[in-house]
Amino acid sequence: MSMINAVNSTSNAQSLNVRALNAFSDNYIWAIENNGQVALVDPGDADVCIHYLDKEQRQLNAILITHHHADHIGGIQKLVEYCHKKQWPITIFGPAHENIPCCDIKLVENDQVSLPALGLTFQVIDIPGHTLGHIAYFSNDENEPLLFCGDTLFSGGCGRIFEGTAKQMLTSLTKLANLPEQTTVYCAHEYTQANLHFALTVEPNNQDLIHYSEKVRQLREDKKATIPTSIKIEKIINPFLRSHVHAIQSSAMAFDKNIQANNLDTFSAIRRRKDQF
Q: Does 71 carry a binding-site annotation?
């Protein structure tokens, strides 16, 4: 295991804040703030980030990338140029097995990313499936553990399997489901309402899912975000974390009569069904 440090900026620690920056139609770029210092997660749109940094008078310290898709990396080059003009030191972290522009530190499973300016340390988790090199950043704070998981786990759903296999994606999601239940989950898209529409077709009698869907409906009617979520919530309402549950397996076999009642066949069947939903 290696310890990897971003550029340090000495300051008195204040309370950590995670802010959503809206980008494109449904992306969230996450700004992790502490005492005027910021780390950005998956900044696909530089202009949104620069507007926020200027308006809030924040200094960008680090960029954390989960995977190589354009809506996650598209703003890196412009943000690096912006920081150079400001004479701010900046460190770019990203997955070792993907082509990330300007990447200073290439990360693999169990690396630790230390952000001293923010008072944070992240453990890197390999979560292939959506892309082959996809990683997540997990901060195991005993009071409020944090997870930035890109496009692997969504509230009520999971990412499409573009490069990996269903087995890889299920393994990745199982890793995340095994994190502490109080972990706050910051995913990269506002897909919750659509995901829950599908989830209700898979597990229509799940009362927790029904109640959560109503809560999400109200949030979206009020134009409020449904993210962050938590591991605890997702284990109760997300069918892609519940392929071991009999009701989910029964639904999967109704979708595809050729599968077996096991976790992988169940997960694969409901993922295929979601792709066509």
A: yes
- Distance in angstroms (rounded) separating the CA atoms of residues 19 and 40: 10
Interval 65-121: pLDDT, tens: 999 999 999 999 999 999 999 999 999 999 999 999 999 999 999 999 999 999 999
Please tell me the distance from the alpha carbon of residue 35 to that of residue 127, in angstroms, as a whole number. 31
68 is in an annotated binding site: no
Domains and CATH numbers, the chain: 1-124 (3.60.15.10), 127-277 (3.60.15.10)
Strands 17-23 and 157-158: unpaired
Instruction: Determine contact, residues 269/259, Cβ cutoff 8 Å.
Output: yes
Binding site annotation covers 211? Answer: no
Annotated ligand binding at 265? The verdict is no
What tokens were used for 229? 């979520």
**Amino acid code (one letter) for 117:** A
CA dihedral 214, 230, 42, 125 (to 10 degrees): -140
Q: What is the pLDDT of residues 152-204, one digit of tens each?
A: 999 999 999 999 999 999 999 999 999 999 999 999 999 999 999 999 999 99
Name beta bridge partners: 214: none
Asked whether residue 244 is marked as a ligand-binding residue, the answer is no
Tokens representing residue 165 in the block? 């296999």
pLDDT in tens, 38-66: 999 999 999 999 999 999 999 999 999 99
Rounded to two decimals, the pTM is 0.94
Token pair belonging to 164:
């990996």
Candidates 86, 88, 76; CA nearest to 49 is 76
